[in-house]
Amino acid sequence: MSGALLEALRAAVGAAQVLTEGDLSAYELDWRRRWRGRALAVVRPASTDEVALVVRACAAHGASVVPQGGNTGLVGGGVTDASGTQVLLSTARMCRVRGIDAANSTITVDAGCVLQAVQRSAEAAGFLFPLSLAAEGSCTIGGNLATNAGGTQVLRFGNARELCLGLEVVNAQGDVWDGLTGLRKDNTGYDLRDLMIGSEGTLGIITAATMKLFPQPAARVTALAACHDLGACVELLKLAQQRLGPALTGFEVMEAFSLALVARHFGQLPRPLPPAPWTVLLEASDSDGEQAARSRFQALLETALERGLVFDAAVAESIAQSRALWHLRESIPLAQAEEGPNIKHDIALPVSAIADFVAHTDAALIRAFPGARLVNFGHLGDGNLHYNLQAPDTVPPQEFLARHEHAVNTIVYDAVTARGGSISAEHGIGALKRDELAARKSAVALGMMRAIKLALDPKGTLNPGRVL
Amino acid sequence: MSGALLEALRAAVGAAQVLTEGDLSAYELDWRRRWRGRALAVVRPASTDEVALVVRACAAHGASVVPQGGNTGLVGGGVTDASGTQVLLSTARMCRVRGIDAANSTITVDAGCVLQAVQRSAEAAGFLFPLSLAAEGSCTIGGNLATNAGGTQVLRFGNARELCLGLEVVNAQGDVWDGLTGLRKDNTGYDLRDLMIGSEGTLGIITAATMKLFPQPAARVTALAACHDLGACVELLKLAQQRLGPALTGFEVMEAFSLALVARHFGQLPRPLPPAPWTVLLEASDSDGEQAARSRFQALLETALERGLVFDAAVAESIAQSRALWHLRESIPLAQAEEGPNIKHDIALPVSAIADFVAHTDAALIRAFPGARLVNFGHLGDGNLHYNLQAPDTVPPQEFLARHEHAVNTIVYDAVTARGGSISAEHGIGALKRDELAARKSAVALGMMRAIKLALDPKGTLNPGRVL
């Protein structure tokens, strides 16, 4: 049975691109090292037609396919299970920029293009492609779309979904849907594009996409601001939105302990402001020049100081300083890893509920787990916190995680659910949060999702056991 | 049979809200007077629970439901057929603003809220709700979402879809899906929201929505610019996007004959520029003051004059003048109606293909129908033209339409399809374009759409015969 399937796969993509032996952990082991799968084979198609042949072969033989981009996902959605029966389809060889339409401000790329390559192609043509996230050097645009990735520019430009105009998809029957439109408006039937985006390879395999491009801003200015509490950060966000409108392109918050961890593990990084309860990283982009951007930004911060929202602030004086500020922010997850294993949450809340959520949940966690250390940072402008927890430094972290992770999650997710929030803001569901989704999503929504999955993939060919 | 259903409907919404007699043409006749349906009854629920009861009653009795908002749709999607067996569900009584969350910049409204009422509620709370279109005084937000409405602010703010964060929907089984989230990020399963948006009441009945609000701009500046050809308009768009970035909030084009019709039928309207082959209406919104906005705008137009993209321009000097410019643009469809029956197209193209499309299609139409008069205007910034055709003035228009409408559509839609365009940019499919959709959409896309319809509405309870 599996022999015949392997034959069909070799016929589809060539024997050299059907990997069954040797160390396949680059594909089978996820980036967080939480899921180690075993695949029947890793196949590496070079084209959309080859993807279609692979899916047809799997469907014909009753096997399932797990699509994988850069294998940087955080929820175990892109690795096979341990059964040894699933086919892992890597899009790594599909990495062509198909074209840039400058007059239409769009770029069309293969799904396997690395995000950074898409950014650079756009830049070379005089455009900005704004999707930006920590894994951009290895994640792929196909994976970004399959998980509806977020990142640091969502406040202004939206998630991956909002940046996508058209898709090419191989569906569960191995048919190619050519929806690669570069149109800004198209009301011809159901929104298959947005249904595919964020479905984590369970409804179709994205093979190419047409994405929006934007004019490059003439100037970017970055600043740090120190706030006494999270409520003041929310007020500052509101003021910045009023004053800067769409020129506000970044608004990140960092609680004191998250920056203390950076200082502990990356002491060489400059800290332009002394420690504060909360530090905000603001970024403004401007189509006028540097000078205009800077003076608007300074006026904003002065008002914030006068109103007591901020008690200290520093504006980056150069691109290098600006990068250093972003580097501080981006070093938090790395500092967390240095500090030891930890429990991550990727939650979203209405911005109006965030301060209350944090006050309530901090207290509940400390009560339940004295000495637990909260590492709280994230994209406040999007209502998205990475609300993480490091074990008390008196306890071996692996032991703490093994014993308490579920109870920690329950406290956090109950508080999120009570406030109308989301248990997965930008990372998706995958394997990690599948049970939480089943337990917390409304029965009506789950019923519709299951009906759609069954309608589009009745044989369960595409990434079964993920999401639903 | 129908007696028992009427009883159940009366039990659901009260006898006074089940209309079966008298003149029901306000509901049964569409705004364009192209479709005159006959309903078993018009029901006017006052709440989501009542909508659910109505759908359950219809499903139980094997009847179907046609949801209707303000009855301003242009494609016959919101009126019953002539069978006398369908139930028309009007959301007119569901018009409560459920709440504004100022700190989260969101508004939650019943589906039957008139668009203008939503705009005004936002304004009263100090916000901008940017969705804006000709029918805003009578269309409803539920209808706007069911059809994914566009309008004049799409360039900056997107279609209705991009403005929506959460929905409440009654599905085909009469269950209520509470997806009324105000979250900017939520990757928990399939994107049911965007699937419902634009599905024209065939997958669910939208009963409420949470929409994004924006800061009010400090200033808005409007201008007219005269161009020699459409290619120059496209170049001007590009320049304006580079210079103004997201501050560019409107970019409308009007071909000479469309403004000549306005002059003929509304001679009292001031024309700040002499006739030109193409006239562009530009709008910039700015979070800085009036002065800054105006000087940036003037610098843009000076560059455009220097580069020969524009040969004349006039910037509005007051809010009244600004309104007068928009009024010119908005008078085109009314002037067309005064001129007589005509053939409308609502097409989208990649911006890069528009000039070629118009040159080709103008020539083809004039060749096929000598004397036909093209009324070409639209949202160039979105690649969306209302590419309409008025009968030759030597022929009775009704006769011309009856004889040639199909052939005209074929020429236009073939040219659109050949250039990767859309036959419905912002109006939807409804009854009008159902056959065109079936003929022109790819079989793979249609297959997936039909599978979704069958999965979510297996009995065909919701607006059957529309879209698919």
The biggest chain-chain interface is: A-B, 95 and 95 residues
Strand content of chain A: 15-25%
Euclidean distance between termini CA atoms of chain A: 27 Å
Multimeric status of the protein: homodimer
Rounded average pLDDT of chain A: 96
Report the strand count of chain A.
Answer: 19
Query: Which secondary-structure class do the elements of chain A indicate?
Result: alpha+beta
What is the percent of helical residues of chain A? Answer: 25-40%
**Unreliable residue runs of chain A:** none
How many DSSP H or I helices of chain A? 16
Radius of gyration of chain A: 23 Å
Q: Largest beta sheet of chain A, briefly?
A: 8 strands, antiparallel
Shape of chain A: globular
Question: In terms of topology, how is this protein built?
Answer:
Two copies of one chain form a homodimer.
Chain A: H1 2-13, E1 18-19, H2 25-28, E2 41-43, H3 48-60, E3 65-68, E4 87-90, E5 97-101, E6 106-110, H4 115-124, E7 127-128, H5 141-146, H6 154-157, H7 160-163, E8 164-171, E9 176-179, H8 192-196, E10 204-212, E11 214-215, E12 219-227, H9 230-244, E13 248-255, H10 256-265, E14 278-286, H11 290-306, E15 312-315, H12 319-339, E16 342-343, E17 346-348, H13 354-368, E18 373-379, E19 384-390, H14 397-418, H15 434-440, H16 443-456
Parallel strand pairs in A: 2-4, 3-4
Antiparallel strand pairs in A: 1-2, 5-6, 6-10, 7-11, 8-9, 8-10, 12-14, 12-15, 13-14, 13-18, 16-19, 17-19, 18-19
